[in-house]
């Protein structure tokens, strides 16, 4: 198990179908976690209780990462509380159902870009000065394999994730001289409420899922904890030579 004992790790979107499992894995690895959520605190509270039972320090905050000032206040509060931020992890995402582009409501596009791209930009801005001063830190964003290959039914989301990959690579080049690494984790199909929602669409949803699974060499959708273990490694001291990467975790669906 990756040892994160003594590390202060911020996790935005810690109430999500992937983010909450990422937070749980980080707790299990010994990290002191500061969990951010925008709405629906139920899953975050479950993680906090598990952390308390394990004797881990875990703090919860409601924060809107699509607001740059809110992101800055949250990061400042963590520094005030602990004196440092070792890793900032952004797992913010939308729960929009799969829809072909022509069927999408344009009024929702800006929100997708704000949540899936700008939240990482704002969180990075909020923590990078502190990390640069320490000459150490990890910035990790949850993206999607759709950023690499496209994805029918989520074109605007794929665009946001593509922008996230480009942003992270560019920031990694800027911050490497200070010992700060920046990476994106790109899951493929993963067992989350979004996948459950697709199953609920009857025969059409099942056909889409079955076709998806047939295309995955390992023959199954990902477990959210798989993603948590990768993020835990990237947050650790062992990943100090990895930066500017968009790491696919998709059972071999994407090999690039």
Polypeptide structure, described:
Helix content is 46%, strand content 15%. With 256 residues, the protein is of the alpha/beta class. A seven-stranded parallel sheet has the order 3-2-1-4-5-6-7, sandwiched between helices. α4 links the parallel β4 and β5. The longest helix is centred in the middle third of the chain and has 26 residues, at 109-134. The protein is globular, with a radius of gyration of 17 Å. The two termini are 27 Å apart. The model has no long low-confidence stretch (mean pLDDT 94).
Question: Summed up, what is this model?
Answer:
By secondary structure, the protein is an alpha/beta fold. The protein contains nine helices and seven strands.
């Amino acid at each position: 198990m990756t040892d994160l004992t003594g590390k202060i790790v911020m996790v935005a979107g810690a109430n999500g179908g992937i983010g909450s499992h990422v937070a749980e894995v980080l707790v299990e690895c010994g990290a002191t976690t500061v969990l951010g959520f925008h709405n629906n605190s139920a899953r975050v509270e479950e993680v906090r209780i598990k952390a308390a039972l394990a004797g881990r320090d875990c703090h919860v905050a409601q924060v809107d990462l699509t607001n740059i000032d809110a992101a800055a206040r949250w990061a400042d509060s963590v520094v005030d509380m602990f004196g440092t931020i070792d890793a900032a992890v952004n797992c913010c995402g939308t729960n929009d159902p799969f829809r072909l582009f022509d069927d999408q409501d344009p009024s929702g596009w800006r929100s997708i870009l704000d949540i899936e791209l700008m939240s990482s930009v704002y969180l990075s801005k909020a923590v990078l000065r502190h990390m640069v001063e320490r000459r150490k830190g990890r910035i990790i964003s949850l993206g999607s394999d759709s950023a690499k290959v496209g994805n029918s039914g989520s074109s605007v989301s794929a665009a946001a994730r593509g922008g996230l990959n480009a942003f992270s690579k560019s920031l990694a080049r800027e911050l490497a001289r200070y010992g700060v690494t920046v990476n994106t984790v790109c899951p493929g199909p993963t067992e989350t409420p979004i996948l459950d929602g697709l199953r609920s669409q009857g025969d059409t949803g099942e056909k889409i899922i079955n076709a998806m699974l047939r295309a995955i060499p390992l023959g199954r959708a990902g477990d959210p904890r798989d993603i948590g273990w990768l993020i835990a490694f990237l947050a650790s001291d062992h990943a100090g030579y990895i930066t500017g990467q968009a790491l696919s975790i998709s059972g071999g669906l994407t090999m690039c």
